[in-house]
Design a protein that fits this description.
Helix content is 34%, strand content 20%. By secondary structure, it is α/β, with parallel strands linked by helices. The protein has one domain: Vaccinia Virus protein VP39 (Rossmann fold), CATH 3.40.50.150.
């Protein structure tokens, strides 16, 4: 990385390939550190989710959860890559701070991916919601400010069986329960070592419970670590090998149906996980490395993906 340009909690950094990204001073991490924001969002989400293909076949609103809105590179890249398709998009973004988005908008020229969406981003900054026509479709974009694990835990608790069955949960101010269940999730927290609260088994268990079993949903993430994959499996997801992104030679994709995975993890992976020194999910927000506990190994073996 080359020279940073200053800001409060964030810096603009130029990557070796000439593109720019944000660096968080508090976390000591760059948002998209190697290939840059747009290339990473294209590879990890647009391509991996086969988003255009799914939207072309989809009837009704296609719901995307954008976990870790940050500087909106993922959100805007997904919107731009699909704007010629007629399928309406419901985009639900989550973050515990709006600061990186405000900072990024001030550096829109260098970042290069805001073009044409500045008005909408300003609306998200100021009102946390906007409904607009974008190319061939409408977009309903909402932002939920707050601690994602806490929002999810509160939403899961409040979601009664009656609401779940109706598929139209009521809205709670400040809670994610007003958001419809997703068809796709862009999961982009900082790394497990720096941001462990976003990678725990309780979080992914609550996230899985929040999905509609009748609504196929996939979640790609840049991590390919054994601990992450075990966490997703024990939370209830099916888990597969994800594409290379140019930054990582392999990533991970999880889903609530095997149909959305091209290369599900197999028994060879399971054997390696059993021998790994770092496979036991984190249960709280303290980063910790440990081999699989006997109970987790039992549960993994009983997972429908391996039986
Ligand atoms: C790598 S950045 C996301 C980059 C973003 N997706 C983009 O395209 O610009 C990670 C984001 O996760 C958010 N985050 C970290 N911990 C969180 C939490 N507990 N709840 C909600 N958001 C959180 C951070 O504020 C940060 O914006």
């Amino acid at each position: 990385m080359r020279g940073p340009a200053g800001g409060d909690g964030y810096q603009l950094v130029q990557l070796n390939n000439g593109t720019h990204s944000l660096h968080s001073l508090a976390y000591g991490e760059t948002f998209h550190p190697v290939i840059g924001p747009v290339a990473e969002a294209q590879a990890l989400y647009v391509k991996q989710l086969r988003l255009r293909e799914r939207l072309q076949k989809h009837a009704g609103d296609f719901v995307i959860w954008d976990v870790g809105l940050g500087a909106a590179a993922n959100a805007l890249t997904v919107l731009r890559a699909t704007r010629d398709l007629a399928c309406p998009i419901r985009l639900v973004s989550f973050d515990c701070t709006i600061e990186p988005l405000a900072f990024a908008l001030q550096h829109a020229d260098a970042l290069g991916y805001f073009g044409g969406y500045e008005t909408q981003v300003r609306a998200i900054l100021e009102q946390h919601a906007i409904h607009f026509t974008d190319g061939a479709r409408t977009v309903n974009w909402q932002f939920h400010l707050g601690d994602f694990p806490a929002l999810l835990a509160a939403g899961t608790e409040r979601r009664s069986p009656t609401r779940r069955a109706s598929g139209s949960p009521s809205r709670h101010a400040g809670s994610e329960t007003g958001a419809p269940s997703p068809h796709a999730i862009l999961f982009d927290a900082f790394s497990p070592a720096k941001n462990p609260a976003m990678w725990t088994l309780p979080l992914f268990t609550n996230l899985f419970r929040r999905l509609d079993p009748q609504r196929p949903c996939a979640l790609p993430t840049y991590s390919r670590s054994t601990i992450m994959r075990v966490t997703l499996l024990l939370a209830g997801f099916f888990v597969g090998v994800g594409h290379a992104t140019g930054e990582k030679e392999e990533t991970t994709i999880a889903a609530n149906t095997l149909d959305l995975l091209t290369e599900p993890l197999d028994h060879r992976w399971l054997d390696r996980a059993r021998r790994s020194h770092s496979a036991e999910p984190m249960v709280d927000s303290v980063y910790r490395i440990a081999p699989l506990a006997a109970e987790s190994w039992e549960k993994l073996q009983a997972h429908p993906q391996f039986t």
